[in-house]
Amino acid sequence: MCAARQAAAGQRTVAGPCRPRVRPRSSAEVETAFDTLTALRNFSLMPALQTAPFTATEYRAMPDDGRRYQIVEGELLMAPAPSTFHQTVQANLICLLRPFVLRHNLGTVLGAPCDVYLDEVNVFQPDVLYVSQDHANRVQEDGIHGAPDLVIEILSPSTAALDRRKRTLLARAGTVEFWQVDPALRQIQRFVFAEKIDKPVALIDEPEVFASPLFSGLELATTEIFRR
Fold this sequence. Notes:
Blueprint: H1 3-9, H2 27-49, H3 56-61, E1 68-72, E2 75-79, H4 84-103, E3 107-111, E4 116-119, E5 122-124, E6 128-132, E7 139-140, E8 143-145, E9 150-154, H5 160-173, E10 177-182, E11 187-192, E12 202-205, E13 209-210, E14 220-221, H6 222-225
Parallel strand pairs: 4-8, 9-10
Antiparallel strand pairs: 1-2, 3-6, 4-5, 6-9, 7-8, 10-11, 11-12, 13-14
């Protein structure tokens, strides 16, 4: 019982709640709470609150807060942190593609985070990308300006719908191939945009081996791509 209530009641017992003492929050707790709210806002609410399309110019002016952002059709979106297996598959793909590309002087292989500026309202960060030597001028110090020849996205439940939107935009911008890698199913969907935009030309399951005309002479084993 609060001291004030005891004094007012004399020796009688008075039922009722007392106002609890509130412990002041530390600066670290305040900062953590703010970061959590900011992350939730950026992930789910920011597109709905935008009054005008977010632009690449604004994107370049953003301070680096350690998070991954993308602009898709003028919407600023925060990418969730990938799982460890997602990152393992990404590293495997780069290790399989990059040495071959360098050895044959075919172009550039890069992995996220790397900004791809398609236009003023579309800035992506593909998991893996390849730019051919014919388009070497698209590789600049601050990212890729124009469509990569190949974009590889590693699927997760939270990004599936977004990846479909990006696939259409990449096809329009001039990307040749798009590989959608599903670590859960251990399956790769290979899209060739000159043939079909919305349907893969091949479904590749582990332990199959496949190839692409972009890398003539290279065979890729799915067992190596999905190796933990």
